[in-house]
Amino acid sequence: MTTTFGDLGRGIRQKELADTVARLGRKYLIFSGKGGVGKTTLAVNLAWVLAKSGRRVGILDIDLHGPDLAAALYLDANLTADDKGRLIPVEVIPGLWAMTVQYLLSDANQAVMWRGPRKIRAIAQFLGDTAWPELDYFFIDSPPGTGDETLGVVNMIKDLTALVVVTGHRLAIVDAHKAIGCLRQSNSKVLGLVENQASLVCPACGQAIPLNDPTKVESLASQTNLKILARLPYDPLAVAQAERAQMPLAEASPESPLTALLKELAQSL
Ligand SMILES: Nc1ncnc2c1ncn2[C@@H]1O[C@H](COP(=O)(O)OP(=O)(O)O)[C@@H](O)[C@H]1O
Ligand SMILES: [Mg+2]
Question: Using a 6 Å cutoff on CB, does residue 39 contact ligand 1?
Fold first, then answer.
């Protein structure tokens, strides 16, 4: 049975939601104050690496107005439903299941124009009305900041742990600081910071060239009392390899220092 965009209108069913959430294993919210800092990239690569190491992993895109999960996975698909009418997540590779609103849109360039309650219902359906298998890890790729989608999911999943992605740019740090405060007010656990694009891997010599003053993220860490879990470089060669292979960079560029750090971070979760 093919499910379309128009079917997503039902109310939140608390029991289905609680039953599903209990099956999702360790649940991580990939979060940031600012857009474009690397949340989707991080979510996809952590999920991919863990699935390749034999774990069962789910990834849910709640960036309803900028859903990038399908593009980041280089995978187009349409969602189908099971005989109980539950959405079936798309199995990307063995052990990795993905769900994004993109898979409900008939036109890849169509935009979602939902507001508050409609968005919350859609996310509740992506959790409770979806046939997620029993998982070890569940990653939620979020839009920047603490809007309806993110606060909605924090409310629906009480044992969610946030990883805050930040770059060393001043405005990314300012926004991260505010957003961390708001997350904490919503009682979400915050595990730590991931500094992305901390340096540039030189395509010619492989040396890491610092891109920003490292003390900026260190000072954010001390002011928010959070650990820096990883400092990831920007690797243009890995991006080019990913584009060529149409695969996430951890798969396409196994030799990259970025991949090594992503693997280390994934294993620590
Ligand atoms: N460490 C990195 N090395 C190379 N490219 C990166 C890295 N992190 C992110 N990018 C690229 O930067 C762009 C923005 O990242 P994205 O994950 O979409 O950010 P967000 O989800 O926070 O908006 C993407 O095109 C992604 O491929
Ligand atoms: Mg994103």
Answer: yes
